[in-house]
Design brief:
Number of domains: 1
Distance between the termini: 55 Å
Radius of gyration: 21 Å
CATH topology: Rossmann fold
CATH architecture: 3-Layer(aba) Sandwich
CATH class: Alpha Beta
Strand content: 5-15%
Number of helices: 12
Largest sheet: 4 strands, parallel
Amino acid sequence: MKKLRGICVFMKNGRSSIKRLAYRCWLQCTSIIFRAAGKQTVHFLHIGKTGGTALKEALAKVPGKKYRIITHRHATTLRDVPHGDKVIFFVRDPISRFVSGFYSRQRRGMPRYNFPWSKEEAEAFAYFSTPNQLALALSSSDPAIKEAALEAMQAIRHVNTHYSYWLISREYLLSRRKSILFIGTQENLEEDFEIIKKILELPNNVQLPNDPVKAHRNPPNVDRNLDPEAIANLSEWYAEDHELYKLCLEIREQIISSMWIRKEGQHEETQLFHHWGS
């Protein structure tokens, strides 16, 4: 039975690898085609719980004059983006992302989506009703409670994904620096979207959705409070995420500082991204 299970896992992983390879080939081919037509391909990576659903809603079917915009699902990573193409993605403080991910999965993604819980997620939410409870349990002196917390952190979607899934590593992210057109933050979603509109030369009527369902936002009344011990536990759990997050903020600042924006009354003169051709 164990041998059969191993064969099944191998076959599943093999199919996934073939699908990813085929997807990368498709992206590479379409990139070449659009480059030949004089268009730059810009990829939007959707890192979970960073405002990506709202951004994809706004960017869907927007015709770019110079750019072909591809909005991706969660599975696509920076490694999938062809060299020579540009990429935009958003990040969020890892602890805030944890809280958002917990509540998103607690309501199974509703009302925009309805993704049923896995067996392990159902067990996690039967045990923990708030992110604070789960985070505190990571340092519980009760072995059973601590074990339940560790299992929940591995089971709950969004909670169990790390920035390294999309960005691979610090070294890889730096190696793709020239591919990065912009890094936004969920905390500055609206302001950063206006920057993206300027970069991509999108019309003014392109707007983020106001509807919280379309934006896939958590309800405003959920309990986001975290005790100091909970924050300490999460800081340790997401230590590598914090390092990648800090690097993303550094790259973001470099990009913004390379932009020159000057406003004089109603006149606005804007020069964006001197590194575009680098």
